[in-house]
Amino acid sequence: MCGYVWGNTKERIEVPVLNERQRQTYFGALNYYTQEFLLQPHKKGDSQSAIAFVEYLLAQYPKSRIALIWDGASYHRSAEFQAYLESLNQGLNENEWKVTCIRFARL
Predict the structure, then answer these.
(1) CB neighbours of residue 42 within 10 Å
(2) Could you say which residues of the chain have pLDDT below 50?
(3) Strand residues in the chain grouped as ranges (E)
């Protein structure tokens, strides 16, 4: 999803949500090196969707190490997701991990 909104920079522009029950969850990642943005829709934000997104990223960059900077969503911290990361990085030193997840600082 991309778009531009024109208006006075001193005024807040609101975009109405017509039906709040019909939401879409998106996972996105920016490849800082290439400036490529990867976006993947999911029916909901949960551990299985987060794992599927990481699998998608690994398929896109099979030879790269990936660092994700995420918010504190419960599914980013879930036991299921943590077990998945441990299985991915098993036997590797921290500086060799295939996927590293860094949580935003809490205020």
Answers:
(1) 15
(2) 1
(3) 25-31, 36-42, 66-70, 99-103
